[in-house]
Model the fold of this input.
Amino acid sequence: MKRLMTLILILLIFLATTACSKNSTSNSLTIYTYDSFSWFTEKMVPEFEREHNCTVKVILFESTSKIITRLILEKNNPKADIAIGITPTMLAQAISEDLFEKYKSPAVNSIKNRSLIFDSEFYTTPYDYGALAVVYNPETVKTIPNNFSDFLDQPKSLIIQDPRTSSTGTDFLLWTIAIYGNEWKDFWRDFRHTVLTAPAGWSESFAKFEAGEAPMMVSYATDTAYSIHNYGSSTYKTVIPGQKAYVQIEGVSLVKGSQNFKPGKAFIDFMLSDQFQKEIPLNQWMFPVIDMELPEVFSHALVPDKTVSIPTAEISANLEKWLKEWEDIMASR
Amino acid sequence: MTRFIKFSYREFSKRIRVQIIIIVLGIPTLVIALFTPLFYHFFSFNDLALVFEPRTLRILVNTTIQAALSSLIALILSIGPVIYLCTKKSLLNTIIESTYFIPFFFPVISTVIAFSSIMKYLPVQFHYSLPTVLAAHAFYNTPIYVMFLSSAIRNIPINRIESASLETNSGISLTKHIILPSVMNALLRSFFLVFLFCFTSFGIILALGNVSLTNFEIAIFTSLNTSLNIPAGLAYALIQLVILLGMNLLISKSSTQKLEIQTYKKRKGFIASLIFSLLFIAMEFSVILISVFHSIIFSISKRTNYFINLFSDSFNERFPLIEALRNTSLLAVLTSVTITIITYLILRKNSRILDIIITSLFGFSSAILSIALLTFYIYYHIPSFIVLLFGYAFISLPISYSFMQAHVQGFNATLRETAISDGATILQTIRYVEIPLLMPVLFRNFIQIFAIIFGEFTISYIFQSGGDFPLLSVVHYGVSAQRLLGEAYAINSITILFITALFAICSLMGIQTSELPKNSKR
Done:
């Protein structure tokens, strides 16, 4: 019995030791990003590690807001070196919390469309962009939502993302605010009946949409291209309600207090290289910020004629209030 | 010799007092240490005013309505099985009684996945709505009523019922004047317990609910984990703490429920009770079995063995299941061993102050505890494993305390005193007298705490330190959220079979695992 107990104790100590042990190398890079960006860990990270003789650790979060929350918690003791997936909306909070370090990559000069550089101080460097849209299953949807009002007679048929947790969700809310102005709350009071659920992030939403839980979902204008590429046909179609699109730009930032600025900066440069940018269309299903030839399937991606936006300063000043108002409306179902 | 014994007792009492002081001071000190980084860096008193915002009242009303409705529905569903258990003796009794482990030990994520599957087949869209949440809560909580009420009714002396039956032929009158007053204590206690479970529900509301069903636990989670609004999280946690402490006080005022199986007396029963009992069993077991069948059906129809897939390299690169299984098992074993020992040592002291301190731990929100653990982990560079062990110990201590209290404090003190008077040291008394006699209780407690930690979701999910220490419930939730249904059902089957096997083994060993804690949280 004693021997057995001793053996169990040794085994537990061994397992505890292995569970607690962590790999740490001097030339390492820790990246925080969201789960649907995970493709780059297999395709791009090994190349970067090889080129820069560096170990990269990627930590995936369920949503982008969790990255910011985590960075705020770690502010005095940062564990991440770079954060990927920062949108203009989130940047305001990040700057007010002093989370990022300025870094202007020399590769920024290759971004020809200067309107994509949403942060002139370069706390964040853009790496991709895409217009929001509604993806739908043509076999099960009742009415194609060519306008926002077309949603209203289709109860519980749309999956959105929770704007309190997801950048896609926040941008969708901002899109409706940009379209409806001061009347956006009236619109949402009717629109809320269309919403089936609002998961924390895009990946979870898309999984639910693919499982057939609802015929429509807030996503991106490239989804028809995705459908053709992955299923060989346009199983899913995409529409931009009202033909006025809201463009989401994603960026990468260097975390303030990081001990690994050198590989961090190198990774930002790497993300703007042709090598990385050419992988974005068929993996991230967004547009690269560097001008390059797009895959043929991207001819099926919707390119909006008109776009709407809200000035960053207005977003910073009002977002918290808008999110509270949105929650009040949704909670009074 | 007499002087020696008196000295030993004095020494013994002195040691006990010192240990009580250490524990009494130690627990609040640990709590303060745990919450210090969170409050020091992120808290401001001025922001506490938001407790008076309409949102707080809305959450309070929503949470209370949802919890009250869930409790009532579960109570109604329990009536049939209760009547059947008290009037009949058949195989059905054993089947009904085998559901008693569900409220305390059945993993939340398994329930969520099963309900998501059931919702898909319903002709009406109930997904992400109040009816789904109510149904899931009813599945979880109906066995609590069945267990409490059937036991209380069976404890009514049969001659009391028989003499009352002679005076009145009306079943309603008998129920009103004899049965109801006799079971009122058990009814109130079980109602409060179920209400508490529903009030603090996290996983079910998160995965099956919607924004309008936000309760305090979810509000704390969203305040802390998404907008890092610490004052808001704290304000909600304080409100929840006050409500839970008040309820705990009410529960603790009622006498302890004894769950001894009474001798069955065959009485006149209703056919309706049989029908409702069968419906109850169908409800409970359909949720349990749906995952097992689904995983088999999926494997056959898709010609893929999802059970083997789970352990493949490609799957584990995306969802580190093997690592999560190892981490979770290890944490569950270490927590349950540590907590069983600590609880036993605390209960030996039989102190009212300790009783109050430990019972008050029930009121802590798991959501705010998780954020405090995360901040603690970040600020002190303590490995996730140790921080999680501490967090799990924190939530399982009051549960373990409830499980073991009656047994350890009811231990025959004469045996202990005799051993000491025979010259045994305290260590020898514990080792050769108390532990051998209390081994079944300790082992049962170990299994129960193991099962709770194995399926724990709130802390695991909120703490999830960016995937550097994966845990089973989080990986399982991730697989389910990505709608990898084959794999999700396969993990579900493994988890359910494992937990069920654990309790079946205990049952075969003659260890009763269905005794109720005074309180618990999911």
About this structure: The first helix of chain B runs from residue 2 to 42. Confidence is low (pLDDT under 50) at residues 1-7, 256-264 of chain B. Residues 12-508 of chain B form a domain with the MetI-like fold fold (CATH 1.10.3720.10). Chain B has 23 helices and no strands.
